[in-house]
């Protein structure tokens, strides 16, 4: 059975993961070929041979060995498997294993070692390539409000295996020394950013998006201030920072839902507030859930369905054109999901 990614975080991020189909798999293979062609990738193409390289302590330090050759072989093997049996069902699972290669190199080698330096270069190249893929996939995906995209980005950063040292308030073990050594004077970690984000209204505006950006940046800048930029933790903070900056810029480029204006309400029909609630729910659906819902609407109320891209068979549902019965059906599904998610 395929290994799930990451075991402690996948439940909360499942609906924002990007599935790997044939077209996406081909793009991931291009990324792998780009990495392989670089001279500094040579030491990462096959598993570390502890015996031949005389590294008896490697297994004690590195608990999850990974190499680029293994990732490539997994990708190729997946092409012949059903989705449920794939090693990499989602882009994030693929990215997790590639990042694990760099993480292991950072953990085992000193910052002045050639392997460490090569891992840093490749990590930055990989994140640049992956961000370009995310941009492409975001354009093809359903519209999504800026606030929701901030949550998606934060979930992805938390799921990044390199963020292991940035999720919790580990800085507290250093006491006041930590506060005095960071320029901001404001300790921050990814879970603290998440707690702050949870308190914000879901229809939050630009100010909240900007504050999210500033708070998350503190996580990386504080780590660099306290540990120094050329330390192993400073290097990882730099890689994560570059990744975050690229992904945050994509938030403005990604498609967003059109502004919803109320129309004259009709007796016995859903109110504007009810339609707005349903609309917000639909923007949070996974692609599979949205597709199944659209199929059901097509059966019940075809007048509410319109094609937005015939070549890619993409459709939209106009909530204002739904008949009362179909709207009630869709809203009941929304309420059921809300009930399941309630503690």
TrEMBL record:
* Domain Bromo: start-end pairs: 36-116
InterPro entries registered for this protein in UniProt: Bromodomain, Bromodomain-like_sf
Coiled-coil regions, chain positions: none
Q: Which UniProt keywords apply?
A: Bromodomain
What domain of life does the UniProt record list for this protein's source? Eukaryota
| PROSITE patterns assigned to the protein according to its UniProt record, in alphabetical order | BROMODOMAIN_2
Tell me the protein's name: Bromo domain-containing protein
Query: Can you name the source organism?
Result: Calcidiscus leptoporus
Source taxonomy: Eukaryota, Haptista, Haptophyta, Prymnesiophyceae, Coccolithales
